[in-house]
Amino acid sequence: MNRFETLKLSLPIIQGGMGIGVSLGNLAGSVAAQGGMGVISTANPGYAYPDFWKDPAGCNLEALRFHVKKAKQLAKGQGAVAINAMVATTRYAETVAAAIQSGVDAIISGAGLPLTLPAVEGAEQVALAPIVSGGRAITTICKLWDKRFGRVPDFVVVEGSQAGGHLGFSKEEVLSGTAKPLKELVREVCQALEPWQQKYSRKIPVFAAGGVFDGADIAEMERNGATGAQIATRFIATEECDASEGYKQAMIRAKAEDVRIVQSPVGMPGRALASPLIQRLSQGGRIAPVRCANCLVHCQPSQTPYCITHALIEAVKGNWEEGLFFCGSNVGKIQQMTTVPALMQRLSQEWKRAKQ
Length: 356
Ligand SMILES: Cc1cc2nc3c(=O)[nH]c(=O)nc-3n(C[C@H](O)[C@H](O)[C@H](O)COP(=O)(O)O)c2cc1C
Known about the structure:
The protein has helices spanning about 5, 25-35, 55-75, 90-100, 135-150, 170-175, 180-200, 215-225, 235, 245-255, 275-280, 310-315, 340-355; strands spanning about 15, 35-40, 80-85, 105-110, 125-130, 155-160, 165, 205-210, 230, 260-265, 270-275. The chain is of the alpha/beta class. Flavin mononucleotide binds near residues 43 and 232.
């Protein structure tokens, strides 16, 4: 069954999932309405509920259902609505199952290898896509999914070292520039997928993520074998983005030299703006959590250098002093606020021109 073909994408653009709260129903639905794939982040979507710190699990499930429905309504039958679920989070299977029940079209999953994703209740109804950082990871996933579930991914996101948020590379690789360039990763993943495309007699589309900024970048990824691109940071400076005005303005103000690589309690490096929080942590400070939402499988509140959930919630609310402002390496290129229809139209025109 070719589940990717059933998605109504008129543009090969996925708006990357952005947690916490940066991509929820409004952004995702607006992108889908333009024929792309809008993605809701499942990282604590209930953060703004008054009872969030008392009952994070309950608030998150309620918020997720609300945002999936909102996005589907805004999409008006166009494009596709997906969730981004991180393997490193607690309640992973329950969250994915709730999104499927609420009517999401696809599940995109990374921050670890989503080895058990096809076993989630309802997974046969939707398109499944792992996020990988190279050929080895996608081969491992395909072998295991094929053997255990008789299924391979419906599409794949390849994320390179220029992405925002958590990165699937070591801090050294990112800082020294030795991580492979995105187009090389795209070629590697396309090659690794070949035997599986043959075995299942269908194409497994690959989307390139991390530092893709304009239509010419999308066309370049296509020339290297990708079907399209996943773009995140650029969507933050849109009126429809679910983050506060403060977050959006921080992205518009940022220059290339304001970007830092930080160590995240998730156990991976991350890319973010040099905010006061980052400066305090880089001086060796520890900001002990005052409360815990039990959101990450491997987080130890007694030892973590800071609570990433608190820091990301403060960021999405626009608190420059305490927030962790995730962004991609291209944030310095963003000059002004726009709207999702204007951005999608621009990307589409640039992409078509670059293909000629
Ligand atoms: C603010 C922000 C939050 C993000 N949160 C997540 C997340 O929760 N899960 C995830 O898999 N990727 C996350 N990402 C990565 C994006 O989905 C995307 O793949 C990547 O940023 C693409 O690169 P670009 O921002 O240069 O376009 C995040 C990125 C940003 C900028």
